[in-house]
Amino acid sequence: MNTLELAQKLISIKSISPNDNGCFKIIKDEIIGLGFNVEISSYSNVENLLAKHGSKGKIFCFLGHTDVVPSGPEDQWIVDPFSAQIVDNSLVGRGAADMKSSIAAFINAVKIFLADNPDPPFQIWILLTSNEEGEISDGKIDKIIAELQNKNIFIDYCLVGEASSKHSVGDVLRRGRRGSLTGYLTVHGKQGHVAYPKEVKNPIHACGKFIEKISNINWDQGNQDFDPTSFQISNISSGTGATNVVPGDLQMIFNFRFSPENTADNLKRITSDLLIDLNIEHSLEWVQNAEPYYTKNDDFIEIIQNALLKVNGKKAIIDNGGGTSDGRWISPMGTETIELGPLNKTIHKINEQISLDDLSKLEKIYLAVLEEMI
Ligand SMILES: [Zn+2]
Predict the structure, then answer these.
(1) For residue 109, what is the domain's CATH number?
(2) Is pLDDT above 90 for 325?
(3) What pTM did the predictor assign?
(4) What is the CATH classification number for the domain harbouring 285?
(5) Judgement on whether residues 242 and 309 belong to the same structural domain of the protein
(6) What is the distance in A from the centroid of ligand 1 to the CA of 150?
(7) Exposed, middle or buried, 85 (CB in 10 Å: 0-12/13-18/19+)?
(8) Residue 5 confidence (pLDDT)
(9) Cα(164) to centroid of ligand 1, in Å?
(10) Mean per-residue pLDDT for 197-223?
(11) Does 167 have pLDDT greater than 90?
């Protein structure tokens, strides 16, 4: 199948996280004839595919996922989100940008590359999971990484096919992502009648002081590739509904997006110290959604930039914004991890899509990256 046919075939499978639902079978059939050794393994609710080609030289790995987020209300789409139809020269469907098209483009780039270079001086791996988008509790690719590390196998370069581009394919790449840390705070007070202020302890008033202080902290300066760490409150609730009652407690949820210049432990410590300093009776629970990752070395980035120069006539700018990605599991091995993929403006939205021009350009870019590896 060519890139468009393969992308359509994959999009037509309803592989909502953490289900692969048969995508791997199609992918396996596509690459087995190219000399790949393909293993499909499952951990808890998740399936993973690891395909390896060659046995000498550096390991170049393409990382991706076959799962997608739910479509949302299907009647709001211009076509059925799992029909993979072409509308106005764009392929429309859930996964068209995030990231079944990237998988199809990479596989076809490999086909063309191996036809011209049957015995390349580096190894080509394809590592795919069926749970990038879903909950950590369902399992992730970290198990595969741990297994590789146990065997002392090390991935040198990892290209993540996530939708990194902004206005045209290849205009933006990521060499890292911020970490994410969520705090669930309960401020304990003492409930009572508003007319008897000496008898109550108002958790809303206490929290006001905390919010003012914490939202004015400079957590770090970031670095040349990362914005400073940011703090945002996403939810706050308290009150009994009555106008004359001071509530007994208050719940607040907040989140840090943190740069590699900071750590989750440091953010937790500063937050807890502040609550203690302000004498706020509280309980606080943390969920760390992701560690930050950052590729400091320039070797792989240069390979990719040279490929972009060849196809696009210009290099990409580096922007490490956005949510989290599976690059975070690979990078701690010391792997140079770079994200480069389609435009991200429609991901997770109604009418997710990729233009046919972008789809063929993506294949050309991935092919040029492979050629630059020689
Ligand atoms: Zn994705």
Answers:
(1) 3.40.630.10
(2) no
(3) 0.86
(4) 3.30.70.360
(5) no
(6) 27
(7) middle
(8) 98
(9) 10
(10) 96
(11) yes
